[in-house]
Amino acid sequence: MNASHTSQGTRRPLGRVLVIAGSDSGGGAGIQGDIKTITCLGGYASAAVTALTAQNTIGVYGIHEVPDEFIKQQIQLVLDDIGADAIKTGMLHKASVIEVVADTIAPCTHSIPFVLDPVMFAKGGAALLQPDAVELLKKRLIPLAALITPNIPEAEHLANMAIKTTQDMEIAAAHILDLGCKAILIKGGHLEGNAVTDMLITPGSKEIFTQPRIHTAHTHGTGCALASAIAAGLAQGMSLTDAVKRAREFVRKAIENAPGLGKGHGPLGHNPAAWRGPV
């Protein structure tokens, strides 16, 4: 597979990100949000769709599964022709999808970074990962990841513990690192308070990022945008820390520039004109 270079053997500076995730009919998260984010940051997004969802800002009303072999075919065809400088996964929803994704991308993850967003719940609370698939996620995909980006509820499931404080976040991160990933970014937005604290932890380091909370309902797709923005940064040759810093700033600006659509959890403002950060 031509997973990391062009046919001429030179690395593309724009950063090619293969996104493997579900489609969001509302356009705020999933494949749609990922493509918007990566494009805003100057990268090139390709996609393998794992499921179609019928949803809007109020909730998820239906999931239409994509056949496993077709998911595999999408991934392989993109890697064999366009290639990728990073891979990002989102909604994988069931055990057999996790198996086929792990089998297909495993040969690439030793040479290109893989960012795993363990999508388990929609913003409105709907389950997006079947319960029997959680253990398989731990066994097959987390050990391949350069970075995993769980929010608090996802980290609680993966670490099998309650998280109520930033100290709990650090303990949970240690448990999840033991599953084999190289780094974890635990997002603290679900904790109470007027500040949001995220932790980037590797086996040998810890970095804490804290910003004032933006009180708004328009946060649909923040997790997808953050993971995709980090993947874009890694694809463009940035260090993990710098990719995380830029991604967090991008998401903050996207929240600030949310278009105010819908009656529920509205989408972010994936607006290139509003993004003034480095690409």
**Which stretches are low in confidence, meaning pLDDT under 50 for 5 or more residues running?**
1-12
Q: Kindly provide the radius of gyration, computed on alpha-carbon positions and rounded to a whole number of angstroms.
A: 17 Å
Count of runs of 4 or more consecutive helical residues: 8
Largest sheet: 6 strands, mixed
Q: What structural category do the secondary elements indicate?
A: alpha/beta
Q: Which strand-content bin applies to the residues?
A: 15-25%
Mean pLDDT across the residues is 91
The largest beta-sheet arranges its strands as 3-2-1-4-5-6
Number of strands: 9
Distance between the termini: 28 Å
- In N-to-C order, the SSE pattern is EHEEHEHEHEHHEEEHH
The outline comes out as globular
Amount of helix: 25-40%
Oligomer: single chain
Walk me through this protein's architecture.
34% of the residues lie in helices and 20% in strands. Residues 1-12 have low confidence and may be disordered. With 279 residues, the protein is an alpha/beta fold. α1 crosses α7 (222-235), α3 (95-105) runs parallel beside α4 and α7 packs antiparallel against α8 (240-256). The strands form two sheets. The chain has a six-stranded mixed beta sheet, sandwiched between helices. A three-stranded antiparallel beta sheet has the order 7-8-9, sandwiched between helices.
